[in-house]
């Protein structure tokens, strides 16, 4: 009953006119940027972080969550119409959705994506509402050694999840952790890695790193790709709505996609890519019309899109209850919380229940808004695809520079923005994931603080990390997660040499 009461209180916050406006703006922006290839919700939230610096924290977080949900849905439009997913989580959708569009069934493909996103998002948000308090009850019993073990596990899983190479992910993470050491040591008061630059005494701003890596880096990367195949937009033919047969073939994939997306999204090594492809392969095996797969099976759109949006709600479980981001967008949202002096975790539920439960309630509202505004506005989203990329990315660069200067008007800060942007470009060019670097900058100082606290309690004995069952299990899982990819890679090479 406490959860119901808290959720009702959350709805009283989320239904305030100002909060509804924030949710509407978030959903609209999220869908718009999700439609544009290469521009995802992480980039959009990163760009808006400096702009929302002095706005209401609850309203800003509601808007960011709306962007997240909208971006996850918007990526399906380009995946279906031009076979160019706006988000990596829409890759599975593109496999069948683009074939449906070419066969003149783009309307039903977009409809099943929208309705599946609504169904999955609603069920997954209910899961978030009931699972989060239970996790909070466990988290309040954590000691500093447990939190340190949890953060090491997050470091390993995030590094292994993003990108194709665990070593590259760990390299990106190491750079982020090193950047987290810049500034004044809170324990000793000594300056670290500041190189005599006074502006660095406060440390590296998360917003500067995030905007540089995601916005400036992406703009430079797109500009570097001079020769691109023209993207042909498939016109929507026939009815936009689904037939009775389409409904019959979609409802079970929606539910199965939700069952894949929410729990995997809630894991420390979660994300949306894994559940979407699991859903796609499952629907391919269960489909009563196997000959249609590869030629435009509606199940191949319904299942992955449901998994996609369910994972977005699942990602918020570890973010809100433990302060652990499991996706690039969640990492930027964590930076948003810290921008307002808030630390997601069990204490946030006690200190700011209005913000937490208002955010959870707003997800139900954002889901409804997605369906209401997206189906009638599909024509607008298609026209957005005609924006010339030079205009689009030039605008992003100007917006990124202005937003950074608005937060901290400093030549050093602006220089750091473009240094991080060039670094982001190089990482994309050589296939290094950028999200672990942001996670390292945010969680690195927190892991250091928890380790120091644990060592102070144990009078400097590091064995406390292994003597405590909780931290020992978490560190063991982290060790297994660290070596497993290398062991599997070695086995694969060994088998290949034998063949």
From TrEMBL:
Stretches assigned to the DUF112 domain: 20-438
Transmembrane regions listed in the UniProt entry: 20-53, 109-136, 142-160, 167-184, 316-337, 357-381, 393-426, 432-451, 472-491
Keywords annotated in UniProt: Membrane, Transmembrane, Transmembrane helix
Signal peptide positions on this chain: none
UniProt key word Transmembrane helix: yes
Keyword hit for Lipid metabolism: no
Protein name according to UniProt: Tripartite tricarboxylate transporter TctA
Organism: Bosea vaviloviae
């Amino acid at each position: 009953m406490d959860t119901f009461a808290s959720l009702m209180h959350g709805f009283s916050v989320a239904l305030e006119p100002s909060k509804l406006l924030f949710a509407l703006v978030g959903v609209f922006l999220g869908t718009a940027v999700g439609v544009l290839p290469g521009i995802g919700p992480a980039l959009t939230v990163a760009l808006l972080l400096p702009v929302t610096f002095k706005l209401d924290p609850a309203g800003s977080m509601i808007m960011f969550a709306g962007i997240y949900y909208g971006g996850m849905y918007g990526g399906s439009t380009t995946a279906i119409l031009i076979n160019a997913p706006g988000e990596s989580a829409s890759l599975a959708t593109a496999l069948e959705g683009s074939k449906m569009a070419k066969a003149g069934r783009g309307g039903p493909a977009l409809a099943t994506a929208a309705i599946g996103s609504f169904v999955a998002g609603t069920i997954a948000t209910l899961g978030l509402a009931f699972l989060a308090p239970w996790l909070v009850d466990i988290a309040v019993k954590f000691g500093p050694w447990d939190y340190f073990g949890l953060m090491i596990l997050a470091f390993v899983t995030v590094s292994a999840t993003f990108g194709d190479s665990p070593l590259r992910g760990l390299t990106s993470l190491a750079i982020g952790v090193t950047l987290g050491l810049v500034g004044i040591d809170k324990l000793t008061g000594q300056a670290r890695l500041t190189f005599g630059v006074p502006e660095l005494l406060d440390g590296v701003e998360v917003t500067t790193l995030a905007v540089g890596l995601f916005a400036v880096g992406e703009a430079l990367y797109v500009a570097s790709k001079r020769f691109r195949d023209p993207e042909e937009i498939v016109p929507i033919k026939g009815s936009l709505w689904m037939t009775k047969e389409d409904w019959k073939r979609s409802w079970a994939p929606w539910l199965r996609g939700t069952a894949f997306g929410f729990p995997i999204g809630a894991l420390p090594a979660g994300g949306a890519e894994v559940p979407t492809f699991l859903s796609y392969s499952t629907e391919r095996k269960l489909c009563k019309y196997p000959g249609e797969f590869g030629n435009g099976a509606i199940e191949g759109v319904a299942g992955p899109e449901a998994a996609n949006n369910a994972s977005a709600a699942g990602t918020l479980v570890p973010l809100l209850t433990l302060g652990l981001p499991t996706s690039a967008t969640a990492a930027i949202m964590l930076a948003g919380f810290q921008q307002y002096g808030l630390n997601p975790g069990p204490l946030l539920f006690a200190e700011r229940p209005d913000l937490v439960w208002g955010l959870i309630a707003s997800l139900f509202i954002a889901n409804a808004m997605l369906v209401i505004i997206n189906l009638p506005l599909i024509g607008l989203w298609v026209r957005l695809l005609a924006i010339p990329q030079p205009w689009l990315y030039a605008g992003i660069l100007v917006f990124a520079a202005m937003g950074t200067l608005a937060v901290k008007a400093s030549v050093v800060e602006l220089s750091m923005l473009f240094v991080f942007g060039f670094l982001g470009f190089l990482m994309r060019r050589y296939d290094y994931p950028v999200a672990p670097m942001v996670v390292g900058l945010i969680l690195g100082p927190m892991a250091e603080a928890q380790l120091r606290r644990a060592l102070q309690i144990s009078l400097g004995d590091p064995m406390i990390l292994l003597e405590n069952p909780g931290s020992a299990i978490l560190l063991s899982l982290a060790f297994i997660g660290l070596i497993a990819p290398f062991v599997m890679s070695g086995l694969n090479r060994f088998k290949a040499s034998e063949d």
